[in-house]
Amino acid sequence: MEGTKIATRDGFGEAIVELGRKNKDICVVDIDIGKSCKTGAFAKELPEQYLNVGIAEQNGAGVSAGLATAGKIPFVVTYAVFGSLRMCEQIRQEICYPKLNVKIACSHGGVTPANDGASHQSIEDMGVLRTIPNMTVVMPADYYAAKKLVAKAAELYGPVYLRFTRDAIPVIYDENQEFEIGRAVTLREGGDIAIIANGDTVRLALEAEEKLSSQGIRAKVLDMHTIKPLDKEAVLDCLRGIGRIITVEDHNILNGLGSAVCEVAAEEGTGHVKRIGIQDQFGQSAPYERLLELNGITTENIVETAKSMLK
Amino acid sequence: MKNIGTEELKQQAKELRKTALTMIYEAQSGHPGGAFSAADLVTALYFREMNLDPENPKWEDRDRFVLSKGHVCPIQYAALGTLGFFPEKELHTLRKEGSILQGHPDMKRCPGIDISTGSLGQGLSCAVGMAIAGKMNHKDYRVFAMIGDGESDEGQIWEAIMCANRYQLDNLIVILDNNGLQLDGTTDEIMPLLDMSQKLKDFGYEVYDINGHDMDEIVCTLDEIRAGKTKKPKFINAHTVKGKGVSFMENQLGWHGAAPNEQQYAQAMEELERGDI
Predict the structure, then answer these.
(1) Where are the transmembrane segments (chain B) (predicted)?
(2) A-chain residues within 8 Å CB-CB of B119?
(3) Which pLDDT tens digit goes with each residue over A73-83?
(4) Which CATH superfamily does the domain covering B6-274 fall into?
(5) Which residues of A are catalytic?
(6) Using the beta-carbon criterion (under 8 Å), do A98 and B119 form an inter-chain contact?
(7) How much is the pTM?
């Protein structure tokens, strides 16, 4: 699959049909953006397991909680900005507080809804949901990761937030790669610097590793697809063994992956962490790659940051 | 359904009010006004209408009760404790550390609570989800959801109302405890609801407009709904009195969320016992 690009929302759309076929308790609760979130195949093939509650996120979250009390495994599906913020209190009160088995599966994570502008870009979602007890927060790095992690989320009892990309991103895994929620994937080994990324920025970390390698700098690359529960051991390994970490995320630098890693570093009292991510500012309508660039979420910036930390 | 007469239900409602008031008095915290407006309806549901098994609170065929206006939970706790969902001594632990009887209902702690509520406007959506799950699972259970009139200010209530019509949830019975008061004033002053019965008819519901303290009328209405064949969701607009049963609490804003002192408690218990208010 070298060079292939697929949006992770497509991975979700395929995975959810496969899961729904096998387990009749799995259902989809759409909020009238199913076509965009790739639940069309599910709706067509499994209508008995499919609901569309209209443009009513709050009700969608509550209905999902009610379904879960009766043994269903609902995936409530919308865009990341709405699935985290519009239904935030419902997630807290009716899903996380009673620890119900509801999955919130959201496309259009980060700045991937680029041309739609800041209203549709989701830069706070993972951070906001990370602070709610009982919640698990996951962003897969490619199509294969999305398929596998959706299946893992369905197996895990309890609330899970899954965040996908609207845009096609490079495939970096193959179908044999295994994933475990809460366990980072080590993509490259290196002893000079650690790059911890997730979602659509893992590809940038891999590109940066290649460039650094050509300059004689060995970087370790971790795909931290789950920011809660964070794989603390993996972070501690980086802190103790390498001591220098760059975090990269398509999310505000506040309260996302970077913050989670900093929390571990601060409590450990060792190591140096630099965060690359959305610079605590709203976006605008612009191409996806340009929006990343405006926030320094680029291969070049990762390389430069690594070099500055090694001086 | 249990075949219990209305006289017995009236006695039971009196006992539940006394129990709820005692809980609030002992906790020196809670919401007596709305608990008393809901008391007769809650009694009819728990002691006559709903199919439940106190020995098996999670029985999958049970009827569900969602107290969307979760702050009046002492009246629900009183019913659950009396029915044996948990030891009656727990009724003395309301709002205390470690209690199964939290200030607002917690399904993880308290047997018989079908969904945690407390944040207004959210429970009805959960009830809709339970009713849909009943259809999906080919179960005959019904879902009773009690909402408040003040709570109906919340937009999510109307999202849920529409959703139940969309999915033709004839297994959902929404009960409005229409006591006319909310925290800061009357519902007419704060946010007029206008004619809720007409509204719900327009939203596709089978509507029943009743006196929520007339046990005969409550029982007749529930009988009629049980026997009905319409595919529509049901809506009971229950006209009630906040603080019903205690002279100095009735229709008084101040008793929304206040606990009685010793003298008030004694007088209220006496009035409830007499049952002539």
Answers:
(1) none
(2) 89, 93
(3) 999 999 999 99
(4) Thiamin diphosphate (ThDP)-binding fold, Pyr/PP domains (3.40.50.970)
(5) 57
(6) no
(7) 0.97
